[in-house]
From TrEMBL:
This is ABC transporter ATP-binding protein. Keywords: ATP-binding, Cell membrane, Membrane, Nucleotide-binding, Transport. One of its GO terms (cellular component) is plasma membrane. It comes from the Bacteria. The keyword Iron does not apply. Belongs to the ABC transporter superfamily. It is found in: Cell membrane. GO terms for molecular function: ATP binding; ATP hydrolysis activity. Residues 19-270 form the ABC transporter domain. It comes from Streptomyces odorifer.
Length: 279
């Protein structure tokens, strides 16, 4: 059973969450078995808020996150129940064409490995500009200008020079910044970041998280941060949902959950994160 805490809600009752996952269930139907990857999961996030989703490998974090834009491979993925409401509309019932307009424009994703998202054969600036042209239909010159501004905004030095480079010419940290620029150039209202810093070394991790937090502040975005790193959650998120075996076992304000975990699984996760002591 999910333990939901009674805390002072900073969001008035009339202000609906921007994104609401409501009793979502997702199966992967394999040849000889069925994996119940997500079971009756409910989550929500408001504008300007960061919700962290934590849990061990295989707990269903990514399957939940990918469901929002129906990005789980189908087959074998089947959405067996629930709703995912963005701005009041159920994303699970939209046509591919309608969902295509939401993807990347209203809701963007940032993944762990930029190389899976960036085209190795295209200059990075052109990739940022292309996303913008796809969603807004602005001219080439305007898109170039906006892409340069986006590279600058994510802290890429010499954006004019970097604009013309290919992904392999950039460091891992810079590539991640380019992916963030690509995700944010359309000014999405929700960003789902799935382990965005796991592949980076600790100093660069910090810089990328700081960047996400500052951009969120600036643009009042809702952020869903998928991570297995509780220290990152403590430093970055407002609320946390703890997943175990496809279910949310506990959710609440980060400080409440970390100070007084109600669920035995949350206590085990916290006990396995000594870094938190020093955070
Ligand atoms: N494409 C797929 N085909 C079959 N099973 C899948 C697929 N994707 C995920 N699963 C299964 O669904 C379950 C949940 O996986 P998911 O990737 O959501 O976990 P996770 O918490 O994100 O783990 P990690 O931190 O390792 O990414 C796991 O049992 C996984 O093996």
């Amino acid at each position: 059973m999910t333990s939901e805490r009674a805390t002072t809600d900073p969001h008035p009752a009339d202000k609906r969450p921007l994104l609401e996952i409501d009793h979502l269930s997702v199966d992967f139907r394999l040849e000889s078995s069925v994996v119940h990857a997500v079971q009756d999961v409910s989550l929500h996030v408001h504008a300007g808020e960061t919700l962290a989703v934590v849990g061990e490998s295989g707990s269903g974090k990514s399957a939940t996150a990918l469901s929002v834009l129906r990005l789980n491979p189908s087959p074998p993925c089947v959405y067996t129940g629930g709703e995912i409401r963005f701005d009041g509309r159920d994303l699970l019932t939209l046509s591919e064409k309608e969902l295509g307009r939401v993807r990347g424009r209203d809701i963007a994703m940032v993944f762990q490995d930029p190389m899976t998202c960036l085209d190795p054969l295209q200059r990075v600036g052109a990739q940022v500009a292309e996303v913008l042209r796809l969603h807004t239909g602005i001219s080439r010159a305007e898109a170039r200008k906006a892409a340069l501004a986006a590279l600058d905004e994510v802290g890429i030095p010499d954006p004019e020079v970097r604009y013309r480079q290919y992904p392999h010419e950039l460091s891992g940290g810079l590539r991640q910044r380019v992916m963030i620029a690509t995700a944010l150039v359309t000014r999405p209202r929700v960003v789902i970041a799935d382990e965005p810093t796991t592949a980076l070394d600790v100093t660069v991790q910090r810089q990328i998280l700081d960047l996400l937090v500052s951009l969120q502040d600036k643009h009042d975005m809702a952020v869903v941060l998928i991570t297995h790193d509780l220290a990152v959650v403590a430093e970055t998120a407002d609320r946390v949902a703890v997943m175990n075996k496809g279910r949310v076992v506990e959710t609440g304000e980060v400080l409440d959950v970390f100070d007084r975990p109600a669920d035995a699984y949350t206590r085990r996760l916290l006990a396995a994160t000594p870094r938190l002591e020093a955070a």
